[in-house]
Automatic annotation (TrEMBL):
It comes from Gadus morhua (Atlantic cod). The keyword Zinc applies. One of its GO terms (biological process) is intracellular signal transduction. ATP binds at G219, E220, S221, G222, S223, G224, K225, T226. This is Myosin IXb. GO terms for molecular function: actin filament binding; ATP binding; ATP hydrolysis activity; GTPase activator activity; microfilament motor activity; zinc ion binding. InterPro entries: C1-like_sf, Kinesin_motor_dom_sf, Myo9, Myosin_head_motor_dom-like, P-loop_NTPase, PKC_DAG/PE, RA_dom, Rho_GTPase_activation_prot. Residues 1345-1364 have a biased composition (Low complexity). Residues 125-891 form the Myosin motor domain.
Length: 1364
């Protein structure tokens, strides 16, 4: 750059000139920056001309000047008449003098595209797979990632490998819950790149191949690995076939925040850096249902607790506790301000975002409850955290000889002993002196100042590490499924490896030494799997392949671990020598590795050494390597803590959790026995039974020295205690505890207890770490891996800023270019010949065998490019694009065959129906009626005057039993020589009914629509439902986050998501938001949508509900337990998916009746607002409480009349259906009372969803309310049936008289008309109004007497007669 600064003036009257930097984006220009002097009067065209002349490039081409701003990340093209300096003045002041790329504000010069010319920068931005780039280079990869990053597309594929760039910002558009379902069952690459796509592919690969899967997340510190692992866990639990939040899912979702609080901290590179490694293994049944999980932790960074770099912080949980604790908690745990603790002090300790820390503290409480921590356990954990902080405030007063004289301050020691429940004298001894065993004699030796400080810090680190181990153990025990301990139960699993990233700090010590060694091993595993194994398989199969070279880091791994000169081996040797120091260790390392090019020595006086890692050189400070490698729990500390009055502290330092558990059960048994004996003595002394004195009916008995607080025993357990006492051993579940300890045995603090009388020392930290790392890699090696490469976008942790130099460095050392090359040149899919033929046999010609010739013939027939596949000796190799093409072709062929089968079946079915109708028409043509109008019209009018007009939806179909009953009646009435005409009469009756129904349908559609005047209770017609947030989301109204464990409100129609407090801020109604959405995604749902959306004047009852109810009435009314028994969950999910998207195509006859009835209840339960709405809920309850039956019925019907129009119509249809079910009580065993019990929770729900117990209290009232509706409608139905019986008697007399006076033919017609009410009178009463004779010329009375049997009896008109 030029040395010019600020603004300069060229002369009097001239405009002042300013210095700007322009970054050319030109292939032929190698200069990174061009510095120009530009005045405010110069336009863009003049600046471009000046820049082109200065660079000496082609002046015949056209160029454009672009402005890039950090705020939006987009490039703005400046018009020719604009003034660049005016844009320059709008930038932040610190960018005016110089504006490098790192500050995010600068100008870019690039050529304009000519016709037929392709500019790489414009082409690469549309590629979501790096393997599709036309030209592969590191710069092309960099520019592709940069373009996508500034478009907020942080995920990119490299074939099957996902590349994720950390934006240091939460992007709610990526992690909406709907994305989980959107990527389900979608192949990799079909939709835009996403981490949910990788989880979905791994999940279905596990189910289809019956093999364990593993997702390996790698990247340096600050690249976003922890967030990626939490998203994977959320998606994999959601993909489990059981959609409800089971205990395992709830514990897994709560374990993440707990482990992050206790194991993550703020570092110079990452605000939420994992200071431990973890491997989460999710166990599934073969059906895909999650059944358990295991979390393994590796190498917690204990030294961070007592010392850190000045720019870093301690673990998150300390700040959560100190900022978020209430006044009562601060007093109980004796908490101080963060600045008052030595373990938290740093140069620039400023607690920012206190409100966020308070929220995280509440979130931690909720997560601990989800994991299973009781309130008392949480208090014990927080008291230990407070004690650890107080340990850092312990100070020493030394004598001239350096020996400790006094430890203090006294108030700190007093508080510390109270928090740990140990005697202050024993605490002082443990902090100031140590025990040594010499010739079977125990000596007490005082500490020197440095030794005392080390002992104090060692006690704090051991206590925190033991606490962290206990939390992991407790979480694993909660996640344990007992069937995991049985070898007979088959188990599939998906592992998620979230290990610490590569680190290179200003001061690198033993922790960074182990962390970087782990990254070397993972990088070696990745290289071997992606490069070595794949290329070896190509060569062994004999296909044409050019070997691609890749970087191998095996030399670095051998330098670390190979015996006898490996770093870890030499470290263990020096750690076991009493006279060794860090200096002797450094000398030995230099001596053995001085000729190794990967080991770089330092100056003689500098206590450090340098290692050339795959990611670059790292300098390690040798200080405290030996101490950290043998950082065992001191025996004096163990003795002190085991003498604590708190059983929880004794549990932390125990060597065997299972043994401690057994002793705990035994102690509890003794205490219970003593408690009840004391209770018996008290009763014997007083001469009367002892009453419970504790809260909520509990016996409160002081146990003296047994425990700190009185023991509370439920009073209801007293009579059964001694009866059950003999079976108390069943509570001892040490078997499961042993199983968990065996699975997570590596790295536990209890293994590092240094006993004074034990000759053999426990294994070193490095030895345990190597063993656990080998076990981890063995587990990963047995599974099919998926890889996610995380990239850190910048080193300053700035939101949405892309540092090209840093990203390019990561691309180079990770070998991403070679990875993309082998993925592009290689073959993503491979099958053995047998597997290929078995999978694609539908596409293969008849008689094809599993040979390369037949498979090649298939490819030739399909026109597959020869460069996209190769035939090996035993396998066929395909590009991923061709595999997807084959799969799509297979799906189309299968669907074509299915359509052909359906076509033939429908053809045969329609042909059969046609022939039946043809025969019926021929019979009707033969039949000639002789003046039937007078008699039939008179009978019809007589029936008409007494018939009941029922709702239209009762006539949607003619019941089969009606026609069957009519046929039987005609058979009985017909004379023997007229039996041949029975079929003719039945067909005539059916056609007459069909015509009548068509007329009513037309009449109903022609009626004017009644518009209700009621408004929805939700704001602006939105239909909100609440759900608990698992992954942080963004509020659509205020823009702030909806944190995990909070409740969010989502509109079921327009999918608006917001806080509860933001409901009052809504200004856009639901219909407007729905209109803005894509038409392809709106209006396609039938479950979980408000009734008002699904209904219309032409269709008052929602389509799906009407379909289900009609089918049940036609086929299932006589099924025993029709609504009490549940159907198959698998079939229900299948039918639900069809009805949700396209109900017209559903074939209900293919499903069991209990599956249909289960979906009826599910449809009602999933309504955002129940049929009997929230705002009338309390009114219905008050009505059900009325003592008089008549008043109760009147009040309930009044509230039913206040329902919205759509809710009223749907409820009316449902009650009518339940009456029909109750009518068949003899067969289905479903009384009105049992139906009310089943349907009351479905159509009446408490508006207070936060308090489930409130809804449980109202169960009796809601059931009674629904039962009143069913019983009242049933009573009306019975009255109508009685009226029909009376009419039948009168009709029989009339028919008898007509038979005496009329001809034989007329008698038959009269019998036919009489059977309309007689043959199946019950079904006519429930399904048909009075019939109109379309062929009659007579106007029968013009107006019929109408008697409505609707739910409200004309809403208000019949209230006076109800309940009588």
């Amino acid at each position: 750059m030029s040395s010019l600064q600020g603004a300069q003036t060229s002369g009097p009257g001239d405009h002042p000139s300013h210095v700007i930097q322009i970054y050319p984006r030109l292939k032929q220009v190698t200069a990174q920056c061009l510095t120009l002097q530009v005045t405010a009067a110069q336009t863009t065209a003049a600046v471009i001309q000046h820049a082109v002349a200065t660079l000496g490039i082609d002046t015949q081409r056209s160029y454009s000047l672009l402005e890039l701003k950090e705020s939006d990340g987009e490039e703005t093209v400046l018009e020719d008449g604009e003034h660049p300096v005016n844009r320059y003045f709008l930038w932040p002041p610190e960018t005016h003098r110089w504006h490098p790329k790192s500050k995010g504000y600068y100008f870019i010069l690039q050529p304009l595209l000519q016709e037929g010319e392709a500019w790489l920068e414009e082409l690469v931005e549309d590629y979501d797979d790096l393997c599709r780039l036309p030209e592969l280079s590191e710069d092309a990869l960099l520019q592709t990632l940069r373009k996508r990053f500034y478009k907020k597309k942080i995920y990119t594929y490299a074939s099957s490998i996902l590349v994720a760039v950390n934006p240091f910002k939460f992007l709610p558009c990526y992690y909406n819950p709907k994305y989980v379902m959107m990527y389900e069952n979608q192949p990799l690459g079909k939709l835009s790149p996403h981490i949910f796509a990788v989880a979905n592919v791994a999940y279905h690969a596990m189910l289809n191949r019956r093999l364990d899967q593993c997702i390996v997340i790698s990247g340096e510190s600050g690249s976003g690995k922890t967030e990626s692992s939490s998203y994977l866990v959320h998606c994999l639990t959601a993909l489990s076939q059981k959609r409800y939040a089971s205990g395992v899912v709830r514990t897994l979702l709560g374990a993440g925040p707990v482990l992050e609080a206790f194991g993550n901290a703020t570092t110079a590179q990452n605000n939420n850096s994992s200071r431990f490694g973890k491997f989460v293994q999710l166990n599934y049944l073969e059906s895909g249902v999650i059944r358990g999980a295991i979390i393994e932790k590796y190498l917690l960074e204990k030294s961070r607790l007592v010392c850190r770099d000045t720019s870093e912080r301690n673990y998150h949980v300390f700040y959560y506790l100190l900022i978020g604790a209430s006044k009562e908690e601060r007093k109980e745990f004796s908490l101080l301000q963060p600045q008052e603790y030595n373990y938290l002090q740093q140069e620039d300790l400023s607690i920012e975002g206190e409100e966020k820390l308070r929220h995280e503290y509440k979130r931690l409480h909720q997560a601990m409850e989800m994991v299973g921590f009781l309130a008392s356990t949480k208090k014990l954990i927080f008291s230990i955290l407070s004690a650890i902080l107080y340990l850092g405030n312990v100070t020493y007063t030394v004598s001239e000889e350096g020996e400790v004289i006094k430890v203090g301050p006294d108030d700190v020691l007093s508080t510390l002993s109270d928090l740990l429940k140990v005697k202050q004298e024993l605490l002082v001894n443990a902090l100031t002196q140590r025990r040594a065993v010499v010739s079977n004699d125990t000596l007490v030796l005082p500490y020197m100042l440095k030794e005392a400080t080390t002992a104090r810090d060692s006690m704090a680190k051991s206590l925190y590490s033991a606490l962290f181990d206990w939390i992991v153990l407790h979480i694993n025990h909660t996640l344990l499924n007992r069937r995991d301990m049985e070898e007979s139960v088959s188990c599939l699993s998906i592992g998620i490896l979230d290990i610490f990233g590569f680190e290179n700090f200003q001061t690198n010590s033993f922790e960074q030494f182990c962390i970087n060694y782990t990254n070397e091993k993972l990088h070696h595993y990745f290289s071997q799997y992606v490069f070595n194994r794949q290329q070896e398989e190509y060569l062994s199969e004999g296909i044409s392949w050019s070997t691609i070279a890749y970087g191998d880091n095996e030399g670095v791994i051998n330098m670390f671990s190979k015996k006898p000169t490996g770093f870890f081996h030499l470290l263990d040797e020096e750690s076991n020598l009493p006279q060794a120091t860090d200096g002797t260790l450094l000398d030995k390392l230099k001596q053995h590795h001085k000729d190794n090019p990967l080991f770089v020595g330092t100056a003689v006086m500098e206590p450090a050494f340098v290692i050339q890692h795959f990611a670059g050189r790292v300098k390690y400070q040798i200080k405290d390597f030996r101490v950290k490698n043998t950082d065992h729990m001191r025996p004096d500390v163990v003795l002190l803590l085991r003498g604590s009055e708190r059983a929880f502290l004794r549990q932390l330092v125990c060597s065997s959790p299972a043994a401690l558990f057994r002793w705990g059960v035994l102690r509890a048994t003794i205490r219970i026995t003593a408690a009840f004996r004391a209770l018996a003595r008290r009763g014997a002394q007083t001469g009367r039974p002892t009453r419970p004195s504790g809260p909520q009916g509990a016996w409160e008995i002081p146990l003296g020295g047994f425990q700190e607080e009185p023991l509370e025993v439920p009073a209801s357990a007293c009579p059964l205690v001694y009866a059950r006492f003999t079976g108390i051993h069943k509570l001892m579940d040490s078997h499961s505890l042993k199983h968990i300890v065996a699975l997570t045995v590596n790295g536990r603090t209890s293994q590092l207890v240094l006993h004074p009388h034990q000759r053999k020392k426990p294994p070193s930290i490095s030895a345990q770490f190597q063993a656990s790392l080998c076990n981890l890699l063995d587990s990963v090696g047995k599974a099919e891996p998926f890889f996610i490469r995380c990239i850190r976008s910048n080193a300053e942790k700035r939101e949405m800023y892309f540092d090209e130099a840093l990203v390019l460095h990561q691309i180079k050392y990770s070998g991403m270019l070679e990875m993309v090359r082998i993925q592009k040149a290689g073959f993503g899919a491979k099958y053995t010949f047998e597997e290929f033929v078995k999978k694609f046999w539908v596409l293969m010609p008849k008689g094809a065998a599993a040979t390369s010739e037949d498979i090649t013939k298939l490819f030739q027939n399909m026109g597959v490019d020869q460069s996209t596949y190769q035939m090996g000796k035993t396998k066929v190799f395909l590009k991923e694009s061709q595999r997807q093409r084959l799969q799509e072709t297979l799906n189309k062929e299968v669907m074509r065959s299915v359509v052909i089968l359906q076509r033939w079946f429908r053809c045969c079915l329609i042909r059969m129906h046609f022939l039946n109708k043809k025969d019926a028409a021929l019979l009707i043509q033969v039949y000639r009626p002789r003046e039937p109008h007078s008699v039939s019209g008179r009978v019809a009018s007589e029936e008409h005057s007494h018939c009941l007009l029922l709702p239209l939806y009762w006539l949607t179909s003619i019941p089969k039993d009606l026609l069957k009953g009519y046929h039987n009646k005609v058979n009985r009435l017909a004379s023997p020589h007229r039996l041949s005409e029975v079929t003719l009469v039945v067909n005539l009756f059916q056609s007459m009914l069909d015509g009548f129904i068509r007329g009513l349908v037309k009449q109903e559609e022609a009626e004017p629509v009644k518009v209700g005047d009621r408004q929805m209770e939700n704001p602006l017609d939105h239909m909100f439902s609440t759900y608990q947030v698992n992954i942080m989301q963004s509020c659509d109204l205020c823009g702030s986050y909806i944190w995990g464990m909070e409740k969010a409100y989502m509109c079921s129609a327009c999918k608006l998501i917001c806080h509860k407090k933001c409901l009052a801020k809504i200004i856009t109604d639901c219909l407007t938001r729905c209109a803005r959405k894509d038409s392809s995604t709106s209006g396609s749902l039938h479950f979980g949508v408000d009734v008002s959306v699904l209904s219309s004047p032409a269709q008052p009852v929602p389509q799906v509900l009407e379909m289900l109810l009609v089918y049940v009435e036609m086929n299932g009314l006589d099924t025993e337990g029709i609504y009490r028994k549940s159907g198959s969950a698998c079939r229900a999910r299948e039918l639900h998916q069809i009805l949700e998207t396209n109900p017209e195509t559903a074939s209900l006859e293919n499903y069991p009746i209990h599956t249909i009835t289960g979906l009826v209840k599910r449809w009602l339960r999933e309504l955002p607002e129940p049929l009997m709405t929230f705002n009338l809920y309390n009114d219905f309850l008050h009505a059900a409480e009325l003592p008089e039956k008549s008043e109760r019925i009147r009040a309930i019907y009044q509230k039913v009349d206040e329902l919205p129009e759509s809710n009223y119509s749907t409820l009316e249809r449902l009650i009518f259906h339940l009456v029909k079910v109750a009518k068949e009580e003899v067969h289905n065993r479903m009384t009105a009372s049992s139906l009310a019990i089943v349907f009351a929770p479905c159509i009446m729900r408490s508006p207070d969803a936060d308090d489930p117990f409130l809804g449980m209290k109202d169960v009796n009232k809601t059931t009674q309310c629904v039962e009143v509706l069913i019983m009242e409608q049933f009573r009306r139905y019975t009255e109508k049936m009685q009226n029909i019986k009376e009419l039948e008697y009168a009709e029989t007399l009339a028919i008898h008289q007509l038979q005496l006076k009329s001809s034989e033919y007329i008698c038959v017609c009269v019998c036919v008309c009489a059977c309309v009410c007689g043959a199946s009178r019950e079904d006519l009463a429930c399904t048909l109004p009075d019939l109109e004779q379309e062929t009659s010329d007579d106007n029968l009375d013009n107006q019929w007497s109408v008697s409505s049997d609707s739910l409200g009896s004309d809403r208000l008109g019949s209230l006076d007669s109800e309940g009588q």
